[in-house]
Records
---
Amino acid sequence: MRSIKEMLASEGAVLNGHFKLASGLHGAKFLSCAKVVSEPSHAEKIIKELAKQFHSERIDFVLGVNEAGAILAHGVARELDTRFVLARASESGFSFARGFSVTSGSNVLIIDDVTTTGGTVLKLVDLCRKVDANVIGVGLVATKGLRELNVGCRVAILAKLDDFDAWPPESCPLCKKGIPLNG
Ligand SMILES: [Zn+2]
């Protein structure tokens, strides 16, 4: 059976170019989880793998954000027979999407696709703590370079990718060469 890392590499999920990442950093590679979740059988494999990491926990909500993250979080909620909740980026960080909320004192599992610096995960943790929910775990498909994420709960990472250097725009070697950013 192929590992998640092998699957990501072989499904064309790794794009080469000049990208502005969610963290604001620039990188020469981009991991497109959309490429993976657009094939439901691949999404299913990732979902089962993420759910397995947390099957022994009592979870009331699985929280996801953005397109691929939400699809995966929804699948994990189904696997764990619990509820799904959606967050959206807003001007002040993240908020729960209209119609979604978590209850105070509930146990939340955060699912996200890929992280460079962990910024999104930290904001989602804050969002949960603001409403007094307990973040009991974080499940990530992949990290780029980042080996550890200290958010005060268990973090499960399915694939740790190497060779995904990222730079602040002002020291980006691709910007220096005048290479335009990919759309
Ligand atoms: Zn650049």
Note: Residues 121 and 157 are 12 Å apart (CA to CA).
---
Amino acid sequence: MENSQAPVGEGVAPLTGACMCGRVRFEISEPLIGAAYCYCKRCQRRTGTAFSATGLTRPGSFRFTSGEDLVHTYEPGDGGWNKSFCSNCGGHLLTSNPDNPDLLAIRLGALDRDPGTRALAHQFTDYAAPWFPVPDDGLPRFPERLDWSQVDLEA
Ligand SMILES: [Zn+2]
Ligand SMILES: [Zn+2]
């Protein structure tokens, strides 16, 4: 808790990250609000694996520092969040709410180092792959999209 609450400049923020080829780089100036694991089928298809680990950023704290011209965004078009990735290497970078770009979540695997934040919940657990059951780790589970208002951000 101490760690996740640390202000900018005290070891946790700013966070930096990159795609796999390194041509796209970004910076997050404030600590993440929280993080979660997503088991939806969309995350399975785009990652090729069981889930996405994603961290919600504070509005206005995210910016690209290089390679923004390489970033492509896939828009599902059905209200699902947009998915941004590096067009050169395919590395996943972030997802954002199509109706409110301030709601932007980073893929934790793209970060350069430990953000100090741990996942607070599992979401879309009804869609978890049979070959990777949701771990029994005591975190709250949401059969569909998680409701951040039901998650204890101070935990
Ligand atoms: Zn790349
Ligand atoms: Zn998902």
Note: DSSP finds one helix and eleven strands in the chain.
